[in-house]
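Ligand-bound model needed. JFZ.
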Amino acid sequence: MNSPLFDLMRVLAIMPLLSLTLPASESIPPPAAPPPPASLEWWREARFGLFIHWGPVSLKGTEIGWSRGAEVPEVEYDRLFRDFNPTRFDARAWARTAKAAGMRYLVLTSKHHDGFCLWDSQYTDYDVMNTPFGRDVIKELSAACRKEGIVFCTYHSICDWWHPDYPLGSPGGKSQKPSPNMDRYNTYLKNQVAELVHNYGPLGILWFDGEWESPWNPDRALDLYRHCRQLQPSLIVNNRVGKGREDMAGTTARGAFAGDYDTPEQRIGKFQNDRPWESCITICQQWAWKPNDPLKTLKQCLQTLVTCAGGDGNLLLNVGPMPDGRIEPRQVERLQEMGHWLKRYGKSIYATRGGPFRPGAWGVSTHHGKTVYVHVLDWQNQDTVRLPAIEKRIVSASVLTGGKVNCTQSAQGIELRVPVKSRQEIDTVIQLRIEGPASEIAPR
Ligand code: JFZ
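Prediction:
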């Protein structure tokens, strides 16, 4: 058995040992215990996950959360659950789609800003059990993921524009609730998080969101983070638990505490190898499903994944399933195409780290052990890719995607030439074997 899930189990098993010997590996010392380093490792090595935004709003085809009180009147939005009956929902099919894509984990919206809960929650009636469908989606999907070796994770919105206790409302947090009670809401939030971890855990990640609004503050953030850590020490928590996120670039302000990793949204993160990060990007344009949403090409999807890996980050690629419960066939197909590529060339992505060559107009690089993978994404009408010099000798050079490479190394730099017929439209992967560990070469 060599699945990420198994790794996670192993991490859980050695947990008590690790927590006694935590090295201070973060540049910003977190005011709460970070997860044991080994529990972040499975996720960093995974590199690729499936994000799923879903709920009754799929019946309207408008954006989840944001369209409440905007394109869709509040009363109408809040009644949608009464018609939510996705009879073609098949948890096994979703988990298999993720697996076929080469993804190693999956993050589903347990609750978005609209407050609707996709599981059987004892703390609210506004959940999937009170729809005509009446099946616990989180229960079915977490079980199916476990079977397929996909690590199950949930997205959970801190802001809740529906809940009467949360101070702000729709549209987009711009209105005030008549009699809010943030302390009571906070208890609701923590109870639901505990419910998710206890009933469907262990979870890989708790992917928080909606932290930017004023009712959320650093004290509550730290308290929620500690709550998560207590519930499950190996849980990975994204930076949207806290107030340290700078903007949509998703990086964490220096000195500010915010979770375990950064979350660039709808953009590829910059090269950053001293703090983990994950770009979340939609396969179409909207997070939730809408009809005829323009689908990204295979080239866009793969180059996005490769560029994330080259910047030392992960990609969380989003689909919004349809109101009948299926992921759109054309999106499933795109994901399968990515999986086919990863089956052949995945060793240049999984368990690699970004660099040592910083991303350039030509493409990106990744490395593992004594191998550097140069991913040429754009030859820019030139016959040579020029890279900065490295101190270590290149022992051999080959083209993982087929063909031959001419490689010259000098004190001035490295030059790589691949005949036109062997260049790939999406990614020409050149494999450089070097005389020592590539991790010893500082990024340049
Ligand atoms: C957030 C969510 O609002 C969005 O629906 C999706 O879940 C994404 C992954 O995360 O994205 C945001 C956050 C903030 C703004 C816009 C989108 N904003 O402040 O405009």
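Residues 4-348 form a domain with the TIM Barrel fold (CATH 3.20.20.80).
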